[in-house]
Amino acid sequence: MFRLSFLSVLTFVAAALATPSLLLEVSGPSNVYGVDSFNITTTVKNAGDEVVRLLNHPRGPLSDLPTDMFTITNRHGLSPDFVGITVKYSPSAAFASKDYHAYTVLNPGESISVQHDISDAYDFSTSGPGQYVVMMKNFNTFYYAADGKISALVGGSGHAFHTVNIAGNARSYKDRAHKHIGGFCEAWQERAIDAAIPLAEKYVTHAIESLAKNGPKGTEYKRWFGHALHGDRHTSVSGHFHTLAANNFSEYTYACNAHFCANRPGLFGYVYPNKFGTVHLCGQFFDAEVGGHNSRASTIIHEALHFAKNGAVDEHAHGEGLGRELARSHPHLAAANADNYEYFAVAAFGDGPEGDASVLLTQVHFGKHILDL
């Protein structure tokens, strides 16, 4: 039971046969004085009759990382500025790790709640105090493991939301300097980074050449960005790669074993979009091959795309399977998804897998909003 000072709305995200039934709730205080005390709680309940294993992916409700997982809007249509992290995460790498930190296991009827410090990820200085509606981002996704494979359940319309009144100071005064500092890179890690940089640059060059030669009708373009119904999408994709080509990846600052890396299987690295040139790298990066999908070289491209200076390409979906599904069903989102650029660049170089690995997303369920309490 929630106290009266808390408001909540439930959204039912479900449900084809053999698909998990999940209840998602967004809750928090009705009134907040000062954004430093603004916390939102997401609660996920297994409403089905079977045990479910959910991946703790960074942009989902089971993660406490300061990622851009919420849409927050006041009555004037203004939103706070995002100041958190954007990440490179691979569901297949998390799955393959066999690390229990990769999952949340829920028995039938069981639920789990995660608290999110909103001021870690959002700056209200511009939008100011007032009443806000907080909801999960569109296309929020649950990745779950079943039968030795990963599938994805994507939330439909009518997401869970919470309404809050913010009074007092809209500027955060918490000391977060320690969260921006990466660990010291050892000599072997520096060599691993240095080995990947030339290949990352080749990926970008070949991506530009492929886009120029084959245009929007190329096989790999259609695979990762959808069919060529809109020429401006091809122009946008090409523009992002040309912007990357002007970067010197060797001049980036690479911070190893960074603050948010611990116990995060599948997390290769992350950046603060407005802190151009600093890439925080995790152990998963150094465990990866130098080239190919979800590699050291492709991670450098992925993280570079997240920088505001390079266009602030977003992260709507993670992994090859859902990336291809974006291209098929939501091509406008595929053209704004860093994974799709990463995989296209690898394919343009001819360095992608010959076939789908057994641990890639094998099924995508688009959940329909069927109940709103």
What does this structure look like?
The protein has 373 residues and is an alpha+beta fold. The protein has 2 domains: 22-175, Immunoglobulin-like (Sandwich); 187-349, Collagenase (Catalytic Domain). Helix content is 27%, strand content 28%. It is built from 10 helices and 20 strands. The strands form 5 sheets. It has a 5-stranded antiparallel sheet with strand order 10-4-2-1-20. A 5-stranded mixed sheet has the order 9-5-13-14-19, with helices on one face. Strands 3-15-12-6 form a 4-stranded mixed sheet, with no helix packed on it. A hairpin with a 7-residue loop joins strand 1 (6-14) and strand 2. Helix 4 crosses helix 8.
If you consult CATH, what is the topology of the largest domain?
Collagenase (Catalytic Domain)
Radius of gyration over all CA atoms, rounded: 20 Å
Average pLDDT figure = 85
The CATH superfamily of the largest domain is identified as Collagenase (Catalytic Domain)
Widest β-sheet, arrangement of strands: 10-4-2-1-20
Sheet of most strands: 5 strands, antiparallel
Signal peptide: 1-18
InterPro entries: Fungal_M35_metalloproteases (IPR050414), Lys_MEP (IPR029463), MetalloPept_cat_dom_sf (IPR024079)
Keywords: Hydrolase, Metal-binding, Metalloprotease, Protease, Signal, Zinc
Cofactor: Zn(2+)
